Protein backbone atom coordinates (compact mmCIF):
# COMPACT_ATOMS: atom_id res chain seq x y z
CA UNK A 1 0.00 0.00 0.00
CA UNK A 2 1.78 3.13 -1.21
CA UNK A 3 1.53 6.57 0.34
CA UNK A 4 0.17 7.92 -2.95
CA UNK A 5 -2.61 5.31 -3.01
CA UNK A 6 -3.47 6.03 0.63
CA UNK A 7 -3.75 9.76 -0.12
CA UNK A 8 -6.06 9.00 -3.04
CA UNK A 9 -8.11 6.76 -0.75
CA UNK A 10 -8.51 9.56 1.81
CA UNK A 11 -9.58 11.90 -0.98
CA UNK A 12 -12.16 9.43 -2.27
CA UNK A 13 -10.41 9.01 -5.62
CA UNK A 14 -10.25 5.20 -5.56
CA UNK A 15 -12.97 2.57 -5.58
CA UNK A 16 -14.28 0.84 -2.48
CA UNK A 17 -11.36 -1.05 -0.89
CA UNK A 18 -11.76 -4.74 -0.18
CA UNK A 19 -11.85 -6.35 3.25
CA UNK A 20 -8.18 -7.39 3.07
CA UNK A 21 -7.10 -3.82 2.30
CA UNK A 22 -9.20 -2.47 5.15
CA UNK A 23 -7.71 -5.04 7.52
CA UNK A 24 -4.21 -4.01 6.46
CA UNK A 25 -5.11 -0.35 6.89
CA UNK A 26 -6.53 -1.00 10.36
CA UNK A 27 -3.34 -2.81 11.34
CA UNK A 28 -1.14 -0.02 9.97
CA UNK A 29 -3.14 2.59 11.88
CA UNK A 30 -3.11 0.41 15.02
CA UNK A 31 -6.87 0.51 15.35
CA UNK A 32 -8.60 -1.42 18.10
CA UNK A 33 -10.94 -4.27 17.17
CA UNK A 34 -13.95 -1.97 17.65
CA UNK A 35 -12.36 0.76 15.54
CA UNK A 36 -11.53 -1.80 12.84
CA UNK A 37 -15.15 -2.92 12.65
CA UNK A 38 -16.18 0.73 12.49
CA UNK A 39 -13.79 1.28 9.57
CA UNK A 40 -15.39 -1.60 7.65
CA UNK A 41 -18.88 -0.19 8.26
CA UNK A 42 -17.87 3.26 7.05
CA UNK A 43 -15.97 2.05 3.99
CA UNK A 44 -18.33 -0.74 2.97
CA UNK A 45 -21.88 0.31 3.91
CA UNK A 46 -23.24 -2.73 2.08
CA UNK A 47 -21.75 -4.85 4.88
CA UNK A 48 -24.34 -3.48 7.28
CA UNK A 49 -27.24 -5.82 7.78
CA UNK A 50 -30.51 -4.17 6.81
CA UNK A 51 -32.28 -3.05 9.94
CA UNK A 52 -36.01 -2.36 10.18
CA UNK A 53 -35.62 0.43 12.70
CA UNK A 54 -33.94 2.55 10.01
CA UNK A 55 -36.87 2.23 7.63
CA UNK A 56 -39.32 5.12 7.21
CA UNK A 57 -42.56 4.50 9.05
CA UNK A 58 -41.10 2.02 11.53
CA UNK A 59 -42.98 2.11 14.83
CA UNK A 60 -41.47 3.96 17.76
CA UNK A 61 -40.96 0.76 19.71
CA UNK A 62 -38.67 -0.85 17.13
CA UNK A 63 -38.41 -4.63 17.20
CA UNK A 64 -40.27 -6.30 20.09
CA UNK A 65 -38.58 -7.86 23.10
CA UNK A 66 -38.68 -11.65 22.99
CA UNK A 67 -40.86 -13.24 25.65
CA UNK A 68 -37.99 -15.54 26.61
CA UNK A 69 -35.85 -12.52 27.52
CA UNK A 70 -38.60 -11.15 29.75
CA UNK A 71 -38.74 -14.54 31.46
CA UNK A 72 -34.98 -14.40 31.93
CA UNK A 73 -35.23 -10.99 33.59
CA UNK A 74 -37.98 -12.33 35.84
CA UNK A 75 -35.64 -15.16 36.85
CA UNK A 76 -32.94 -12.77 38.09
CA UNK A 77 -34.54 -11.42 41.28
CA UNK A 78 -31.45 -10.32 43.20
CA UNK A 79 -29.18 -8.60 40.72
CA UNK A 80 -30.19 -5.60 38.58
CA UNK A 81 -30.73 -6.51 34.93
CA UNK A 82 -32.24 -4.68 32.00
CA UNK A 83 -32.52 -4.72 28.22
CA UNK A 84 -31.65 -1.90 25.84
CA UNK A 85 -31.47 -1.36 22.10
CA UNK A 86 -28.59 0.21 20.14
CA UNK A 87 -29.75 3.67 21.24
CA UNK A 88 -29.52 2.60 24.91
CA UNK A 89 -33.28 3.03 25.25
CA UNK A 90 -34.45 0.88 28.18
CA UNK A 91 -36.77 -1.79 26.79
CA UNK A 92 -37.40 -3.85 29.93
CA UNK A 93 -35.97 -4.24 33.42
CA UNK A 94 -36.40 -6.26 36.58
CA UNK A 95 -37.37 -4.78 39.97
CA UNK A 96 -33.75 -4.94 41.19
CA UNK A 97 -32.79 -2.46 38.47
CA UNK A 98 -35.31 0.03 39.85
CA UNK A 99 -33.95 -0.58 43.34
CA UNK A 100 -30.49 0.44 42.14
CA UNK A 101 -31.26 3.13 39.56
CA UNK A 102 -34.42 4.62 41.07
CA UNK A 103 -38.18 4.01 40.87
CA UNK A 104 -38.47 6.01 37.64
CA UNK A 105 -35.92 3.89 35.77
CA UNK A 106 -37.16 3.09 32.28
CA UNK A 107 -39.73 5.90 32.19
CA UNK A 108 -39.77 9.61 31.33
CA UNK A 109 -36.30 11.15 31.23
CA UNK A 110 -34.90 7.90 32.63
CA UNK A 111 -35.94 5.87 29.58
CA UNK A 112 -32.45 6.04 28.08
CA UNK A 113 -29.26 5.31 30.01
CA UNK A 114 -27.13 7.77 28.02
CA UNK A 115 -29.62 10.58 28.69
CA UNK A 116 -29.61 9.70 32.39
CA UNK A 117 -25.83 9.72 32.52
CA UNK A 118 -25.37 13.09 30.80
CA UNK A 119 -28.51 15.08 31.55
CA UNK A 120 -29.77 13.89 34.95
CA UNK A 121 -27.79 15.59 37.76
CA UNK A 122 -28.66 12.93 40.35
CA UNK A 123 -27.56 10.08 38.09
CA UNK A 124 -24.34 11.89 37.26
CA UNK A 125 -23.55 12.64 40.89
CA UNK A 126 -24.08 8.99 41.81
CA UNK A 127 -21.50 7.75 39.28
CA UNK A 128 -18.14 7.92 41.06
CA UNK A 129 -16.35 6.96 37.84
CA UNK A 130 -18.51 9.25 35.74
CA UNK A 131 -15.96 10.44 33.18
CA UNK A 132 -14.78 6.94 32.25
CA UNK A 133 -18.28 5.48 32.12
CA UNK A 134 -19.57 8.49 30.17
CA UNK A 135 -16.81 8.27 27.56
CA UNK A 136 -17.47 4.55 27.16
CA UNK A 137 -21.14 5.36 26.62
CA UNK A 138 -20.32 7.85 23.87
CA UNK A 139 -18.17 5.23 22.14
CA UNK A 140 -21.00 2.73 22.42
CA UNK A 141 -23.47 5.13 20.80
CA UNK A 142 -20.96 5.93 18.07
CA UNK A 143 -20.74 2.21 17.23
CA UNK A 144 -24.54 2.03 17.11
CA UNK A 145 -24.63 5.06 14.82
CA UNK A 146 -22.28 3.32 12.37
CA UNK A 147 -24.59 0.29 12.20
CA UNK A 148 -27.75 2.40 11.91
CA UNK A 149 -26.81 5.64 10.11
CA UNK A 150 -30.39 6.21 8.98
CA UNK A 151 -32.05 5.86 12.39
CA UNK A 152 -33.87 9.17 13.04
CA UNK A 153 -34.45 8.45 16.74
CA UNK A 154 -30.74 7.86 17.31
CA UNK A 155 -29.94 11.05 15.40
CA UNK A 156 -32.40 12.97 17.58
CA UNK A 157 -30.86 11.54 20.76
CA UNK A 158 -27.35 12.49 19.66
CA UNK A 159 -28.53 16.01 18.77
CA UNK A 160 -30.21 16.36 22.17
CA UNK A 161 -27.11 15.22 24.03
CA UNK A 162 -24.75 17.36 21.96
CA UNK A 163 -26.96 20.39 22.53
CA UNK A 164 -27.18 19.94 26.30
CA UNK A 165 -23.84 18.45 27.32
CA UNK A 166 -20.50 20.04 26.43
CA UNK A 167 -18.70 16.81 27.39
CA UNK A 168 -20.85 14.70 25.10
CA UNK A 169 -20.37 17.14 22.23
CA UNK A 170 -16.58 17.09 22.65
CA UNK A 171 -16.32 13.31 22.96
CA UNK A 172 -18.72 12.68 20.07
CA UNK A 173 -16.45 14.80 17.88
CA UNK A 174 -13.53 12.50 18.79
CA UNK A 175 -15.18 9.68 16.79
CA UNK A 176 -14.10 7.15 19.43
CA UNK A 177 -15.77 3.77 18.94
CA UNK A 178 -16.21 1.28 21.77
CA UNK A 179 -18.50 -1.72 22.03
CA UNK A 180 -18.45 -2.64 25.69
CA UNK A 181 -18.87 -6.21 26.88
CA UNK A 182 -17.93 -5.92 30.57
CA UNK A 183 -16.53 -3.52 33.10
CA UNK A 184 -16.67 -2.20 36.63
CA UNK A 185 -17.79 1.01 38.28
CA UNK A 186 -18.47 2.60 41.63
CA UNK A 187 -21.79 4.22 42.42
CA UNK A 188 -23.05 6.12 45.43
CA UNK A 189 -26.63 5.16 46.28
CA UNK A 190 -28.71 7.40 48.59
CA UNK A 191 -29.80 4.40 50.69
CA UNK A 192 -27.02 1.84 50.27
CA UNK A 193 -23.97 4.12 50.16
CA UNK A 194 -20.97 3.36 47.96
CA UNK A 195 -21.31 0.21 45.87
CA UNK A 196 -18.57 -1.47 43.85
CA UNK A 197 -20.14 -3.18 40.88
CA UNK A 198 -19.28 -5.33 37.89
CA UNK A 199 -21.42 -5.17 34.77
CA UNK A 200 -21.70 -7.47 31.79
CA UNK A 201 -23.31 -6.64 28.45
CA UNK A 202 -24.57 -9.62 26.48
CA UNK A 203 -25.79 -9.67 22.90
CA UNK A 204 -29.16 -11.36 22.50
CA UNK A 205 -28.41 -12.75 19.04
CA UNK A 206 -26.73 -11.98 15.71
CA UNK A 207 -29.96 -10.66 14.20
CA UNK A 208 -30.82 -8.38 17.14
CA UNK A 209 -29.34 -5.19 18.57
CA UNK A 210 -31.00 -5.79 21.92
CA UNK A 211 -28.47 -5.99 24.75
CA UNK A 212 -28.82 -7.58 28.18
CA UNK A 213 -27.08 -5.62 30.94
CA UNK A 214 -26.46 -7.40 34.24
CA UNK A 215 -25.02 -5.77 37.36
CA UNK A 216 -23.31 -7.84 40.06
CA UNK A 217 -21.46 -6.97 43.28
CA UNK A 218 -17.67 -6.68 43.11
CA UNK A 219 -17.10 -7.38 46.81
CA UNK A 220 -18.81 -8.89 49.84
CA UNK A 221 -19.79 -5.55 51.37
CA UNK A 222 -21.53 -4.52 48.16
CA UNK A 223 -23.27 -7.88 47.94
CA UNK A 224 -24.76 -7.44 51.42
CA UNK A 225 -25.76 -3.83 50.69
CA UNK A 226 -27.33 -4.80 47.36
CA UNK A 227 -29.30 -7.62 48.96
CA UNK A 228 -30.68 -5.25 51.59
CA UNK A 229 -31.50 -2.64 48.97
CA UNK A 230 -33.36 -5.07 46.73
CA UNK A 231 -35.19 -6.61 49.71
CA UNK A 232 -36.36 -3.18 50.86
CA UNK A 233 -37.52 -2.30 47.35
CA UNK A 234 -39.36 -5.62 47.06
CA UNK A 235 -41.18 -5.04 50.33
CA UNK A 236 -42.32 -1.61 49.12
CA UNK A 237 -43.46 -2.91 45.74
CA UNK A 238 -44.72 -6.39 46.56
CA UNK A 239 -45.88 -8.29 43.49
CA UNK A 240 -43.94 -6.21 40.99
CA UNK A 241 -42.55 -8.28 38.13
CA UNK A 242 -40.46 -7.50 35.10
CA UNK A 243 -41.45 -4.23 33.50
CA UNK A 244 -41.40 -4.42 29.69
CA UNK A 245 -41.42 -1.03 28.03
CA UNK A 246 -41.95 -2.39 24.53
CA UNK A 247 -44.57 -4.96 23.75
CA UNK A 248 -43.48 -8.58 23.60
What topology emerges from the helices and strands here?
Layout lengths: L2 H8 L8 H10 L4 H11 L23 H8 L6 E4 L5 E4 L1 H7 L11 H7 L1 H6 L3 H18 L4 H13 L1 H8 L8 E8 L3 E11 L7 E7 L2 H17 L6 E2 L4
Antiparallel strand pairs: 1-2, 1-5, 2-6, 3-4, 4-5
Helix pairs in contact: 2-3, 5-11, 9-10
How would you describe this structure to a colleague?
The chain is of the alpha+beta class and 248 residues long. The chain folds into two domains: 3-48, no CATH class; 67-244, Beta-Lactamase. The chain is built from eleven helices and six strands. The protein has helices spanning 3-10, 19-28, 33-43, 67-74, 95-101, 113-119, 121-126, 130-147, 152-164, 166-173, 220-236, and strands spanning 81-84, 90-93, 182-189, 193-203, 211-217, 243-244. Strand 4 (193-203) and strand 5 form a beta hairpin. The radius of gyration is 20 Å and the shape is elongated. Residues 48-61 have low confidence and may be disordered.
| Chain-averaged pLDDT | 83
Which of globular, elongated, flat, extended, rod-shaped describes the shape? elongated
* Rg, nearest Å: 20 Å
End-to-end Cα distance, whole Å, is: 50 Å
CATH architectural group of the largest domain: 2-Layer Sandwich
Low-confidence stretches: 48-61
Number of strands: 6
Largest sheet: 6 strands, antiparallel
Please identify the top-level CATH class of the largest domain.
Alpha Beta
Strand order in the largest sheet: 3-4-5-1-2-6
Share of β-strand residues = 5-15%
Q: What is the structural class?
A: alpha+beta
At CATH level 3, the topology of the largest domain is Beta-Lactamase
Order of helices and strands: HHHHEEHHHHHHEEEHE
* Tally of helical segments: 11
Helix content: 40-55%
Number of domains: 2
Organism: Kitasatospora cheerisanensis KCTC 2395
Region (Disordered): 41-63
Biased composition (Basic and acidic residues): 41-52
Keywords: DNA-binding
Amino acid sequence: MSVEWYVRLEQGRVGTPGAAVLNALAEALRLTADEGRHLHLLARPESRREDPCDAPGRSESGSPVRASLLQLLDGIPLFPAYLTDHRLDVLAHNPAAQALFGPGFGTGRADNTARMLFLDPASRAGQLDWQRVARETVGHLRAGHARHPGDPRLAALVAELRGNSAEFDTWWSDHTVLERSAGSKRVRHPEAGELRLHYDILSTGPASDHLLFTVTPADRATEHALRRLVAAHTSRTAGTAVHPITAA
